[in-house]
Amino acid sequence: MKNNVWSIRVLITVFLVMLIVIFYGSTRLKVNNETLAIWSQYPNNQQQIEPKDLVNPTTLAIIKSDTANIGNNNSLLSENIKTFQPKYQRTWVHPTNFGQRFSHDINGIPVSNQPLVVLHETVNSAASAINFFQKPHDDENTQASYHALITLDGTVIYLVPPEFRAFGAGNSVFNGAKGLETVKTHPQFPPSVNNFAYHVALETPPDGRNNAKTHSGYTEAQYHSLAWLIAQSSIPNERITTHRAVDQSGSRIDPRSFNSKKFLNLLQSYRQSHKKG
Fold first, then answer.
1. HSE on the CB side for 160, CA within 13 Å?
2. Residues of the chain whose pLDDT is less than 50?
3. What's the pLDDT at 83?
4. Bridge partner residues of 119 (DSSP)
């Protein structure tokens, strides 16, 4: 009889534990519909252009040569912006290098941060970064990824779907209009902006693949592709930031030699073009 009572107690305990796990997973570990709705305004890689629509080399050459006059007579540039669409690739990273977005933080408190764009650079080549992201990393300290990467020739490489959390900025805080924003989702790591961030990296030019504070800068094609990409969303300018700005470790300085004025001018042009279209 005692054995039967003990067995029943064990079964009841197991059942209760299962209920707790199911409840925990449904309320904390999965992104709810409201969170997914927030991310629907981000660039959707499933809706991007087909290969037949890739930018004409002549058009790209005109854009490159005319960008210097963006502050003056930019009618030709504006006309080309209407038709510009970058080349793209879809190259998914290994599942260990990205995760679900959380609807609650580690303490069970609901999170509802508005989306944020964080700009990075690869430091090494695009191929090197992608190779690292595609390898399994069971050690959580080495897991890393971006949502998208833009190569030197302006190709947009989609790495992690926007509805997932890329591991682009550990130990990070965004200082926005509503104050400091960050979310702790792991008991052993500092809070970060990853839960509400869309991470985009620019491939570093060859002369910048070192620890120097500056380099020659990014190509015109990269600036156009970046502006085009972000213009697909309704993320306001004040919620576009850099890895350097959100990093709390003091070790991140990317993207180095980034011309924010040029980028914001192009972004405005692409957004205006999309509204007219």
1. 29
2. 1-2, 5, 10, 14-42, 44-76
3. 86
4. 200, 242
**SS3 assignment for the chain:** CHHHHHHHHHHHHHHHHHHHHHHHHHHHHCCCHHHHHHHCCCCCHHHCCCHHHCCCHHHHHHHHHHHHHCCCCCHHHHHHHHHCCCCEEECCCCHHHEEECCCECCCCCECCCCCEEEEEECCCCHHHHHHHHCCCCCCHHHCCCCCEEECCCCCEEECCCCCEEECCCCCECEEECCEEECECCCCCCCCECHHHEEEEEECCCHHHCCCCCCCCCCCHHHHHHHHHHHHCCCCCHHHEEEHHHHECCCCCCCCCCCCHHHHHHHHHHHHHHHHHC
- Structure tokens, 245: 């700005």
- What span, in angstroms and rounded, lies between the C-alpha atoms of 208 and 220? 16
Q: Count how many Cα atoms sit within 13 Å of the Cα of residue 138 in the half-sphere of its side chain.
A: 0
CB atoms within 10 A of CB 262: 19
pTM higher than the cut 0.90: no
Sign of CA dihedral 251, 254, 256, 258: negative
Beta-carbon neighbour count of residue 171 at 10 Å?
Answer: 17
CA–CA gap between residue 271 and residue 252 (Å, rounded): 30
Query: Cβ atoms within 10 A of the Cβ of 163, count?
Result: 15
Measured CA to CA, the distance from residue 240 to residue 118 in angstroms comes to 6
pLDDT of residue 93: 95
Give 201's strand partners. Answer: 120, 149
Would you say 119 and 258 are in contact if contact means Cβ atoms under 8 Å apart? yes
